[in-house]
Amino acid sequence: MRWIGFLLATLLAATGCNKTCDELAEIEPVLEIGTGRQSFTDIEETTGFEKGPQNGFHMYGSVRARGLFGGDPLEIDDKTPTLTYTLNAVDGDLAGGFSGLQRQMVTLPDGTIERVGDLVILETFEASDAEGVEIELFAEINDSCGRSASAKASTTLSEGAF
Questions:
Q1: Strand 57-66, strand 106-107: pairing
Q2: Number of domains the chain is built from
Q3: Residue 19: DSSP 8-state
Q4: Which of helix, strand or coil describes residue 63?
Q5: How many CB atoms lie within 10 A of CB 5?
Q6: How many angstroms separate the CA atoms of 6 and 150, rounded?
Q7: Residue 112 CB: number of other CB atoms within 10 A?
């Protein structure tokens, strides 16, 4: 299924669906934060987490943005946007995420850029430390045009609740 997205991204990049920085100046940057392993899903009251290859636990982070330059979906270079996810438990006992990593985006036909399925690593090796914990998930994208957008969502973690 991911290869379909890759092929679509290739086609869109080849047909020039990315707007220029000048064209984007007219559009207010907006970011939606979600979850989803293979497709964007809105954050709901409960969000799943699972044991990962790092021998710890993670949830999936996904974002959609308008008014930002998505860069080349096939290459990481100086035009590739940077993405930050910060996860904090409301009670302060759990944290996670990553900061300022370059991430390739797919440009959708309506000009929205999207990134799906990033591993947002939880800073624990015990599922019981995350089960039922209420968190705030923050995301921010910075593009090569000098524009940015951020969003925050609240949810409760539940192992395997996908």
A1: unpaired
A2: 1
A3: P
A4: strand
A5: 15
A6: 25
A7: 18
Residue range 109-146, pLDDT digits in tens: 998 999 999 999 999 999 999 999 999 999 999 999 99
Q: Report the CATH number at residue 111.
A: 2.60.40.10
Q: For residue 107, which of 78, 71, 80, 139 has the smallest C-alpha distance?
A: 71
Do residues 111 and 19 touch, judged by C-beta distance below 8 A?
A: yes
Count the neighbouring beta carbons within 10 Å of the beta carbon of residue 94: 19
Q: Taking every pair of C-alpha atoms in the chain, what is the biggest distance, in angstroms?
A: 49
Half-sphere exposure of 20 (CA within 13 A, CB side): 2
Residue 160 tokens read as 């395997």
Residue 12 confidence (pLDDT) above 50: no
Range of the domain at 6: 2-159
Q: What is the pLDDT of residues 51-94, one digit of tens each?
A: 998 889 999 999 999 999 999 999 999 999 999 999 999 999 99
